[in-house]
Amino acid sequence: MKSSRIPGFYKMTVEERLEKVAEFAGLDEEDKGLILGKALQLDVADRMIENVIGTFELPMGIATNFLIDGKDYLIPMVIEEASVVAAASNAAKMARAKGGFFTSATPPIMIAQVQVTKLNDPYGAKMEILRHKDEIIAKANEQDPVLVELGGGCRDIEVRVIDTFRGPNVIVHLLVDVRDAMGANAVNTMAEAVAPLIERITGGKVYLRIISNLAVYRLARAKAVFDKEAIGGEEVVEGIMEAYAFAKADPFRCATHNKGIMNGVSAVVIATGNDFRAVEAGAHAYAAMGGYKPLTTYEVNKEGDLVGTIELPVAVGVIGGATRVNPLAKIALKILGVKTAEELSRVIAAVGLAQNFAALRALATEGIQRGHMELHARNIAMMVGAVGEEVDKVAEVLVKERKVRMDRAKEVLVEIRAGKR
Question: Residues 81, 299, 303, 392: which is the catalytic one?
Fold first, then answer.
């Protein structure tokens, strides 16, 4: 049976790690070559966005140890920040003691908004829109018969009246099941199509017709029980609970708390070629509903173990967009082994919870800087010109002396090259 528990993974060479991942995920030689080489060719990049002059690379790492709903996953993560991948892996290792992560997700329902203005009777218009609901849904579904055939399509509508400084607006929400796509193109097309019909029904003027990234009907949830002994004892549990209480009470702390969650979430979203800006916007907007709050919760059960949960909107797809254009995104999905957008969203929620737990545990014990500084020291060493084994030697001295600075790194490198170290 495949296991994501790979002891000593971080000690292996890049090539050895890749072989382990290839064995786990069934990657072929072409896949491995793309990971090690330049996967996104210029002619493809030139068709993805405008005014292309080249490509920009970020490191891709693999988080190990993830057991989610009884299945082992290796998690591809694309991020520039040191310690994120290691922290997620360590948190997942600790979660395994109590069965790993347990997840669920709602159906992939996205919201398309249609803004109706210039109405003297907005509440009357709302009633007329609802009276013609079936006609509006039918018009929307005419735009994407393939999606409907696959079991998706516009399911329902909502109508809201809001006050703006330019007068009342009637906002129509198309609730669309987008199946395994992120869904922006599908819902935007439907919103455009129903706009003239809504104008005829209401006598108003439609302006905006666009997706909402606050995907409140497309939620992913995860739970993990962290054994108190596995994470360091009652004192660590107490420290994490204090850190969580701080985030729940203070928006300045909460912003950083949620940012730590998104370190993991966005790294997987980017790796799989999804729209990380949309997911970030949706997550923070969801956290702000009713007052900005943490996306995670922590409790202590009767055994004294820490119970962590997370709930957030995760609008991602496994078809369409960059997920099928960028070769590395396709390989990332292959490594994950996910078959549906719903499964991908659940995995992402588990990673977000793991990332947040790791950050809180570090803050409650040794502080966040130790792990960051060890990895930051390596970056500093490379910045002053260290290569190969010199990087590790310079970094070791900087961390030991607690002087992770470029001036000291230069001095240490000179000493190493002069044979004085």
Answer: 81
